[in-house]
Amino acid sequence: MNEIILILAALLLGLASGFIGGVATGGGLVSIPGLMFMGLPPAAAIATNNLNAISGITSALRFHKSQKLQIRRMWPLLFTSFFGSLAGSKLLLHLNQTVIQKTFAIVSIVLVITFVLNKGPHSAKRGKIHSLLGIFAVLLGSIFAGLFGTGGGFFVVYILCYFYGLNIMEANANTKVINIAGTISVIAVFLHAGLINFQVGIPMMVGSTIGGYIGAHTALKNGEDLVKTIFLLAVFVSGIKLLLE
User: In 10 A of CB 38, how many CB atoms?
Assistant: First the structure.
């Protein structure tokens, strides 16, 4: 592929995935297959996609302006995400992913069916026990995100709704910050392994930065129903995609 065309394609890919990630979560559903189509091996595509996640800072800043972030309350989850993603990225270098991938696909589809039947995810007032269980759940989600480069954010949104009592807009906003913490550790591992393709990753990150801000603005403007709809669609598409691979 011509170098200029490759850079433009990466930029557009970043815009699309950043927008989806900014509105809800799951931008990796667009960027990881796109990177593979551009010629990157699966492990390199997953590794390079993490540069995309850095652009989540712009989405987080946009949500912060609207007072959706609860940074002080999220501190334990930031550390949990960092170490969980670190473990997951190391597992990626050694494990056969097929069984875990199929398991996640089934769980994703079941979650969507549950959300739709219950018109959720729902928020509710929760106590300390729920917070402790939430930390463990985020750990598992972060390990998965480190393994597959996407998907963990779906679980974190649900965890923040169910275990921390956030509505889906607040959960979506705070997930951006939690994911950034995990991305830092993942990038360090993949850099050491030499898996990140910067020629494609940098323009994709630029596009994702712009797309993420626009997506977050769109979510805030159009309200919780849009976020919930895109969130559920992204989870369902992810589950079907992983199940068929």
Answer: 18
